[in-house]
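Write out the 3D structure for:
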Amino acid sequence: MLSLYRKVTVTAARRAAAAWPVALSLVVYVLIIFAAVQVALPLGGWVGGFLLGFVVAACWSSYLELISQAVAGSKIRINFQDFRRTFGVRLWDVISVMFAFWIISFLTRPLVQGTNGDAIAAILGFAMAFFFNAVPELLYLGHSRSFALLMDSARFVMAHPAAWLLPNVVFAAIALGASGNLAIHHPAEALILFGTTFSSPAGVLMIVSRLPRWSLPLVLAGLHFVMVFRGVLFTELASGGGNARLRAFQAKMRG
C-alpha cells in the first residue's frame, strides 16, 4: 500500500497546488454560512432550519464541484459567474443525501434518547463514519443518489477497508491534535470525528473555529490537500489501481 499512497500523495500535491483557488473558496462558504445563521436564528423552528440546511447544501454543492475539477487535474479559474453556477450544479444531489441522513436520524432518535442513549449514539456514530466515509467522493465521482449512494459508500469501504480508512484516520488524528482535542482512547474515535466534522462546511467551520487565527492559511492548505488526496485515492481504488500485492489482498478480503 505504501507505493499506492506515495503515488496518490504526489498526484494530489500537484493537483492541489494547481487548484489552489479552491482552498480560498472555503473562506467564502464560512462567511455565507455565518450570514445564513444570522438570518435563520430569528426565524426559528423548521423555517430557520430549512433555510440553513438549504444554504449548507448549496455551499457543499459548490465545493464538491470545485473539488471534482481539482481531482480531475483541471486548471481552476474562478470568476463570479462560474463560481455562482457551482452552487446549483450538485445541489439536489446533496439534498437527496442530506434527506437520507435526516431519515436515518429520525428513525434512530428513539434509540439515542433511551437509557443507553450515549452508548447507542457512539455505536451509530462509528457505523456512519465507517460505512458512509466515501459519501463526499461519491457525490461527484459516483452515479447514485440518496440511499443508493449511501449503500455504494458502504460497498466501497467494505471493498477497501484498510487502504481507504488508514489515511483518513491519520488525517483525523492530525486535525484533532491541531485543535487540541486529541484525547482519544481508540483509533475509531478519530474516524468518527473525521466523518462527522468534515462531512459539511458547517463541520469544517466548527473545527477551524478552535484553531488560532494565525494558522488559517495552513489549515486551508491542509484541508484542501486532504480533500484532493481523498478524491485521487478514491479514483485509484475504484478503478482497481494500486500494486499487485494490494489487489491480491483486496481479493482475499472479498473472499
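The chain has one domain: 2-18+92-253.
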